[in-house]
Write a structure and sequence with these properties.
alpha+beta; Rossmann fold; single chain; eight-stranded mixed beta sheet
């Protein structure tokens, strides 16, 4: 890690380094024989352009396999609108090589730069550009390295030989609105499926998704600061409106197509696809209400599918990373909610108990299934936000790694593991290479990320009788006898998919910076956030507003019994769901919350997308009263506290209409408020000056609103 100019400020450094991710190694893969590790990393903490690297785990030697500056001749990247949208869906802010795919032996890598196709021979150390029908997306080599398939921005799926010959279209859109080989909006944004095609293990054919978004309503995202620019057209499936129609086809290299058959009307969501040598292709398809789903096998000869497992839940079913999957010997691996516990299930047998809450599967080998879990209801009393790595093998379930450290991620193959760990008392991520579970000293992967200019000091608690996971951050150098009670800033996300209380340092840096401006900052993960239990996550069914807001109040009052919190001066800030929660707090609980900064809030859930919103609130045509109760515009006349609403005008996830409608309702009710529009900014705020000044403006508003 490196430190920077002493005149630098935390907000500027935090924005410039993309939250200290620039220069950090990422996107690891391990060759099946354990002889090569592949990863991405930029040259420094100020360089956003990732290079492709290889590392020899036996010697620790690192080598640049592909450098975007060389491949583009020092020129700037030119991203297509489709690539920009794909990066927005994946929250990708870096540049250069942001993703790659490998053949089965990890000898050949394929990647896109400026919509062009490149391959790297990782054994020979050479890189070449292949002729291709760009701009292109998501190139992926065949397992045997003979071909590369890729999607184009025009909606076609192409394949070319890796010697640069024979580029051709395997499937082309029949009409406008059709794409082959790309994930549709809902899959990318909400299902965690960013792929649209999958190679067969024998490299002779592919499974290819066909998405037709013609039925999806069109929204238009304009740039009011540049009235000469045409608005961008977005196919956005808002709650209660039609989704894209998604099918799946077997496509041979000669172009022969066979449709994969399942009941699309009953199970319209194609959530997962898995094709490995362990068995027939697997599909996980979901009902629109997400209370039932099926894992089905595909007959590669006919496209006919057969039911393998059917799952049902009265509330909803979660999707998980890494499953369903086959073991090499043909056993099905999945994660399911059984008896109130989220468990790992292998070949129909539940292999974990209520001491663990299983989160994802990160490797499936011949002798074990490797998975991530947090503590279950019957765990050993680990601190809030703890996660760990585990191995389920013939001898049972055991922690994985040399020291059982928490908050970890890993990849594994050929007896070699790349283990990434973080901790609350140290900045950044430590990357180790393990062979057969033992650290290889010579093969640690260096990080070039900058060292933060401040140190986060979160104190973790389970707050109150509900045991809400929480972190409290006080100003650096705070002395209770000298400084007394502190104004409070609640800093939650507070909703589904967003765990803020984690045993890691860097995620708490912004909260610490706010604390150093004179606040006691409280981060609380109430019901609805992940990592506790199925019941904890599903407690918000049909009730975002009541449950999530109640738990913020519960945590605040419980923590005030131990920490110096001035309950007469309480503010709240948040972004996205956290922005919704912040606005909700001052509208419905002005007795508790005295000011709020609401960033990119959802104010009317009828304007948010189908897969997310209908999972939690149901279909708006069937439950209009639920949508009314959980939306904010009708609460506008209740506002009596200072409220700042911040929104990027280019946001195509939570569109600016949310803020504009709430602001209009507040104006109609005669309620003063502040709106800060961010021209050209999406749901992310990657621009350095925008991100820095946004933090500064929030502090000034909160201090003024609380009379500080």
């Amino acid at each position: 890690m490196t430190t920077e100019n002493p005149a630098d400020t935390f907000p500027r450094q935090y924005a410039r380094t993309l939250r200290y991710t620039v220069g950090a190694p990422r996107s690891f893969a391990v060759a099946p024989d354990g002889g090569r590790i592949v990863f991405l990393r930029s040259g420094s903490g100020r360089d956003r352009a990732n290079r492709l690297w290889t590392l020899d785990p036996a010697t620790g030697e690192e080598r640049v396999a592909a450098d975007p500056a060389d491949l583009l001749g020092g020129g700037e990247e030119n991203l297509s609108a489709a690539e920009r949208a794909r990066r927005e869906r994946s929250r990708e802010s870096s540049a250069g090589i942001v993703g790659y795919a490998l053949d089965a032996s990890a000898s050949l890598a394929a990647f896109a730069l400026s919509g062009r196709l490149f391959t790297a021979d990782l054994a020979a150390g050479t890189t070449r550009e292949l002729p291709a029908a760009g701009p292109l997306l998501d190139p992926r080599p065949a397992p045997d390295g003979s071909h590369v398939a890729y999607a184009t921005t025009s909606g076609a799926l192409h394949v070319t030989r890796t010697d640069g010959r024979g580029d051709r279209a395997l499937a082309e859109p029949e009409t406008d609105g059709v794409t082959w080989g790309q994930a549709e909006f809902a899959a990318q944004e909400e299902m965690g499926r960013d792929r649209g095609f999958w190679w067969s293990p024998d490299s002779r054919r592919l499974l290819v998704a066909r998405a037709d978004d013609t039925p999806v309503q069109r929204w238009w995202i304009a740039d009011p600061a540049n009235p000469g620019s045409a608005p961008a057209e977005v196919a956005y499936p808002a709650a209660g409106t039609p989704n894209a129609e998604v099918g799946l086809w077997l496509v041979d290299l000669d172009g022969t197509r066979t449709e994969v058959i399942w009941d699309h009307e009953a199970y319209p969501y194609l959530a997962r696809v898995h094709w490995s040598a362990g068995g027939a292709p697997l599909l996980l398809v979901q009902a629109r209400d997400q209370r039932s789903q099926q894992i089905r096998t595909v007959d590669p000869a006919t496209g006919i599918t057969a039911l393998l497992v059917e799952e049902q839940d009265d509330t909803w079913l979660e999707l998980f990373t890494g499953v369903p999957a086959w073991t090499p010997d043909g056993r099905l691996v999945r994660i399911g909610d059984t008896g109130g516990v989220r468990a790992l299930v292998v070949d129909g047998r539940t292999v974990t108990d209520d001491t663990l809450h299983v989160r994802s599967v990160w490797a499936v080998t011949a002798d074990a299934v490797h998975f991530t879990a947090s503590e279950g209801a019957a765990g050993e009393g680990r601190p809030p936000g703890w996660t760990g790595l585990f191995r389920a093998g013939p001898d049972g379930v055991a922690p994985f790694g040399p020291d059982g450290d928490g908050a970890a991620a890993a990849v594994h193959a050929g007896g070699v593991t790349v283990l990434s760990t973080v901790a609350a008392d140290r900045p950044g991520t430590t990357v180790q290479v393990l062979r057969d579970g033992t650290a290889v000293a010579v093969a640690a992967v260096a990080s070039h990320a900058e060292t933060p200019l401040l140190t986060a000091r979160p104190v973790f608690r389970f707050a109150g009788t509900r045991r809400v996971p929480a972190a409290v951050l006080l100003p650096t150098g705070y002395d209770r006898d000298r400084d007394g009670l502190l104004p409070v800033l609640m800093d939650p996300y507070g909703g589904p998919h967003g765990q803020r209380v984690v045993q890691a340092h860097n995620p708490h840096l912004t909260s610490q910076w706010f604390a150093d401006q004179g606040f006691a900052v409280v981060v609380a993960d109430g019901r609805g956030t992940p990592g506790r239990s199925p019941a904890w996550e599903k407690a918000i069914a049909h009730d975002f507003a009541g449950v999530t807001l109640d738990d913020q109040v519960h945590a605040l009052h419980a923590l005030a019994e131990e920490f110096p919190l001035d309950l007469a001066r309480v503010a709240i800030r948040g972004w996205s769901y956290g922005g919704y929660l912040a606005a909700l707090a001052v509208l419905r609980r002005p007795d508790v919350f005295h000011a709020a900064v609401s960033g990119a809030p959802v104010t009317d859930w009828r304007l948010y997308d189908t897969h997310y919103t209908e999972r939690y609130l149901g279909h708006p045509a069937e439950r209009p009263e639920v949508y009314d109760a959980n939306s904010l515009t009708a609460d506008a006349p209740k506002l009596e506290r200072p409220l700042m609403i911040v929104h990027g005008l280019a946001d195509d996830n939570v569109v600016a209409a949310h803020t504009l409608r709430l602001s209009s309702a507040l104006l109609a009710a005669g309620r003063p408020h502040t709106v800060l529009p961010l021209s050209g900014v999406t749901h992310m705020t990657p621009q350095e000056q925008v991100a820095e000044n946004l933090l500064l403006l929030q502090v000034e508003f909160l201090q003024r609103s609380l009379g500080l």
